[in-house]
From TrEMBL:
Cofactor: FAD
Domain Glucose-methanol-choline oxidoreductase N-terminal: residue ranges: 234-301
Keywords: FAD, Flavoprotein, Oxidoreductase
Protein name (database record): Pyranose oxidase
Organism: Pseudarthrobacter defluvii
InterPro entries xref list: FAD/NAD-bd_sf, GMC_OxRdtase_N, GMC_OxRtase_C, P2Ox-like
Length: 521
């Protein structure tokens, strides 16, 4: 095919991966990317965490909260004040799917389900955590050598570095205390360490956080020849994927500025919105494999806040080390670079993914004068992420007789934790109590977050080895029976995972894009 056109639905890290790899590997290809939300930053897809002005950052987040935010602001549950990322149900920059107004989804068993609608998708708001999948988290039908290659390319696209915060003496003290508690129980290579993150360290010790912008790279640089073959259309809603039998011919889109609809022909269509709106678009287009929307998983999360004990910390860090840490964080008070540690997922010893974020304040107000309300050594916010084992019954389904706020078949989410998950939650809670005791004193007791709080929604377009009704896509991310319809995102992950899924999903997207590029070339 001499001059193929690829339509990409969704501008997050996954859609951006497809655009980047295809334009680099197919010399005459053209990519048109469609995003229903607005562009928030001068550089398309940049993380809003990089915006220095608090008012501008708040404005960017508000713009991401969906067109229903104005009408239903009070029911969105989004805190107006500054919050610690990941510690509240409705994170700033997102909007609840079940927001309580006309056209709202129905998700009583998954109440915290949320999405972001903007250029860069959740990549404009994520915490940039990029651990690699391990053990049973990995996709079994991708060989280890290929998997390692895919992960390395994904790390390069996301600008992942593993030594973040390694020079923090406060962070090191936290690691050593946790290692003293858990180290002997963990396998080699899977002990306490720093959290790999996506971003570029700056000379002043800050980090320029990565979003979809770093994945797009030269595609948005007007000086690059690749940019001449790339087009990003924001505020453009893809209404349908158009079909001729079992072949995709293009997409019908609506310009949300004017309301006008038009058809855009394409040789390949990549649907990479999110784990709810991607299957919704397929369903609305008449693409309805048995597994579509089913096998929904996320990460149940148990969280807590601990006041660090001075005597414990002083075993490994000095008052001067603490002053240096606080001075570094004060350089960027709107988004301080935290000392983030973790204990990664491993089997069978530790089927959890733990993140421990240092902060000089709690993510909630404490009454002045109460115990530990002004703790000199600060606090850690800890979260234990656990597995949700895939079941057909956990699903998002769609109703042709009821429209959502955008005129699509409305969603209903059914989801339940089973005895298997409840057992792992209990085990994780006990370990969280051990971690808290090793570090200090709980000022917020361990609690299980409402279903959907993780924002890591997976499985609703899962990939598989065979077209047997248990998967939506083949091993190269193509929808079964449609050779030129490709899907991408966390929704493809077929396994039970405990870690942040972005790196894994980008690696899967690299594999799918390489396959398309080979065929188009």
């Amino acid at each position: 095919m001499s001059n193929p056109t690829i339509a990409v639905v969704g501008s997050g890290p996954i859609g951006s991966t497809y655009a980047r790899v295809l334009l680099e590997q197919v010399p005459n290809a053209r990519v048109i990317m469609f995003e229903a939300g607005p562009q928030l930053t001068a550089v398309p897809g940049e993380s809003v965490r990089n915006i220095p002005d608090p008012a501008e950052k708040a404005r960017a987040r508000e713009m991401s909260q969906g067109p229903q935010a104005g009408a239903y602001r009070e029911s969105l549950g989004i805190p107006a004040a500054t919050v610690t990322e990941g510690m509240f149900t409705a994170r700033q920059g997102t909007h609840l799917l079940d927001f309580g107004g006309v056209g709202s989804a129905h998700a009583p068993s998954f109440p915290a389900a949320a999405a972001a609608t903007n250029v860069g998708g959740q990549g404009a708001h994520w915490t940039c955590a990029t651990p690699s999948p391990a053990f049973s988290e990995k996709v079994a039908f991708i060989g280890d050598d290929e998997w390692d290659s895919l992960i390395e390319e994904a790390k390069g696209l996301l600008h992942v570095h593993s030594a973040a915060f390694a020079d923090s003496k406060v962070g090191e003290a936290i690691r050593r205390l946790l290692d003293g508690e858990f180290g002997a129980e963990l396998p080699e290579g899977y002990g306490v360490g720093t959290l790999p993150v996506a971003g570029d360290p700056q000379p002043d010790g800050s980090v320029r956080w990565a979003g979809a912008d770093v994945v797009l790279g030269p595609l948005t640089d007007k000086a690059s020849p690749l940019s001449q073959r790339f087009e990003l259309r924001d505020l453009t809603l893809v209404r349908r994927v158009e079909l001729d039998g079992h072949r995709v011919t293009g997409v019908t889109v609506q310009d949300l500025r004017t309301g006008d609809e038009s058809f855009v022909p394409a040789d390949v269509v990549v649907v990479a919105a999110d784990a709810f709106r991607s299957p919704q678009l397929l369903w609305a287009s008449g693409v309805r494999p048995k597994a579509l929307g089913h096998y929904l998983t996320e990460h149940p999360v148990v969280i807590s806040t601990v006041a660090l004990d001075a005597d414990k910390m002083k075993q490994f860090a000095t008052e001067e080390d603490l002053d240096a840490e606080l001075a570094r964080r004060a350089q960027n008070p709107a988004d301080p670079v935290a000392a983030v540690n973790r204990i990664p997922f491993s089997e069978p010893e530790h089927p959890f993914s733990v993140q421990v974020m240092y902060s000089e304040s709690t993510p909630f107000p404490m009454e002045p004068g109460t115990p530990y309300s002004d703790n000199r050594w600060g606090y850690v916010n800890m979260g234990y992420g656990m597995r949700k084992h895939p079941r057909y019954e956990d699903a998002v389904t769609f109703d042709e007789d009821e429209q959502d706020y955008r005129g699509f078949p409305n969603m209903t989410i059914e989801y339940a934790l089973t005895e298997r998950e409840e057992k792992e939650i209990a085990e994780a809670t006990e370990r969280l109590r051990r971690a808290g005791k090793a570090l200090g004193v709980f000022v917020a007791e361990p609690r299980l977050m409402p279903n959907g709080s993780s924002l890591h929604y997976q499985g609703t377009m899962r990939m598989g080895e065979a077209d047997d009704g248990t998967s939506v896509a083949d091993p190269w991310s193509r929808v079964w029976g449609y050779e030129n319809l490709v899907v991408g995102g966390n929704a493809l992950i077929p396994t039970a995972t405990a870690m942040n899924p972005t790196l894994m999903s980008v690696a899967i997207a690299v594999r799918g894009a390489r396959k398309i590029a080979k065929e188009l070339s």
